[in-house]
Design brief:
This protein is mostly beta strands. Helix content is 13%, strand content 49%.
């Protein structure tokens, strides 16, 4: 095997309740949300590739017209030359929000590549091979970098996962049938108790502490 095909990945893991940032060898800056695991293999001028295994990351990619930057996530690939975008992966989908530059999305089960423009967000669902495009929102899709916890018609299952990652706590849904209920809210530097209380009052669920867990029912 030639050296050109060898991959040597370094890993960045951000624990729930924390955030981090990193500058890759090529100059690309990445901000990482809580509960994120990312591997990178970047050799300036040769190859630039990261793998987002879980969580959410905002990329400010250093320009290099001769060496595209690739993000691989859940069977999809985001290819860029130099741009600013956010990628978020959940259990069922991948959300890519583009703020400047251009990216190209590819996946084995997509009929053709999809080229995004600034101001767009693409939502890719791997199990159904579906890709939807809609306008993005800087506050909703990248507000986490500034301390905003934002939900917009988000299923309760995903809301609880985001809260768990944000505050570094364990949350358990005792009534799975309400996991698909859609929640909307925006919080800025608020306590866990304040967020749970506001959502519970608005959407009619209760919660209680049980040992190290918070039970939502």
């Amino acid at each position: 095997m030639s050296n050109a095909t060898v991959r040597h990945y370094a890993t960045i893991t951000v624990k729930p309740g924390q955030k981090a940032s990193a500058v890759l060898p090529d100059g690309t800056r990445i901000d990482l949300n809580g509960g994120t695991n990312l591997c990178y293999d970047v050799v300036p001028g040769e190859r630039r590739e990261v793998v987002l295994n879980s969580g959410e990351a905002f990329f400010d990619v250093a320009k290099d017209a001769n060496c595209p930057f690739h993000v691989r996530v859940k069977g999809m690939q985001v290819e860029v030359l130099g741009t600013r975008f956010n990628v978020k992966t959940t259990r069922e989908r991948v959300e890519t929000a583009l703020f400047s530059g251009a990216v190209r999305l590819t996946a084995n089960n997509l009929n053709r590549p999809y080229r995004m423009k600034p101001g767009q967000k693409a939502v890719y669902t791997a199990d159904t091979a579906a890709l939807r495009c809609m306008p993005n929102d800087l506050h909703r899709d990248a507000g986490w970098k500034e301390g905003y916890l934002v939900f917009s018609s988000t299923p309760l299952d995903d809301v609880l996962q985001q809260i768990a990652n944000w505050y570094g706590v364990q949350l358990q849904l005792a009534r799975p049938r309400i996991g698909g209920d859609l929640l909307t809210g925006s919080f800025y530097n608020e306590t866990l108790e304040s967020v749970l209380h506001s959502l519970s009052m608005q959407y009619g669920f209760t919660y209680r502490k049980q040992g190290d867990k918070i039970i939502v029912e």
